[in-house]
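dude i think i finally got it to work??
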Amino acid sequence: MLNFQTEQLRTFQTVLELGTFDAAARALHISASAVSQRIKAMEQAAGQVLLQRTTPIQATAPGEVVHKLARQLRQLEADAAAELGVAGTAPVPIPVAVNADSLATWFVDALAAVPAGSGLTFEVLREDEHHSAGLLRSGEVMAAVTAAPDAVQGCSVAPLGSLCYRAVASSAFMRRWFPGGFSAGRFADAPTLQFDRSDTLQSNFLAAVTGGSPAGPQHFIPDTVQFAAAVRAGLGWGLMPEAHCAQGLRDASLVELVPGRVTGVPLYWQRWKIQSAALDLLTTAVRTTAAAALS
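look at this
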């Protein structure tokens, strides 16, 4: 049975946060040699290399398991300190992975719904909903908004609802590319906006409507606000959250490519399965806000 000491796990976490043994030594007020000895003792106990001695230092696959354990210990200690009212205890930010469109539409409201007196702080990592589960597996985050309905090992999962999108373009774009009205034959050749190279929303929509894939120019705009601005500027067509395109559809500055067709992306909340008052508060706020904001 593994029996890592608390000081070893704190050292391991600090090394990964700061990237070098020397930086961790300064932060922990010990020598770099002591840091190295603690890590070597952990690796001997595990029988495996836990850290890649690169710049910055990174966890190996077994090291990611230990990293998750170190984060869990730190969060449990923070919860205990809060419950005991220990003065001078700095809050530990809760790392959370959130997709860009949720962050731009409803997730900040969820953070604001956490009781102000809780003292919680958050570190939000922007990650595509189809890839955020990987950050849970590696221990980089404690919770995530994800498209994965199956719980990551060591996590619980709950449905949040669907974030709804409409395929839209500017009225000028439609006049140029579809002067006679929408045509599936011209659709594949029209310029397309993609969020980034992992984005599949537009490709999936095109495949569903025409059975094809984008063949025309593609622009990559990795920011939700600027993506919407690019659509309005006529740079290409793209799927926008309903909250971001509703006004444009009302004033006719935006036009739906396929009127009435809504694309829903089901979202789920996954969090570490540990008894943490902080994670409980965050989970309640996220699920309550999502219930009001998502379909």
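The first strand starts at residue 51 and ends at 52.
im so relieved honestly
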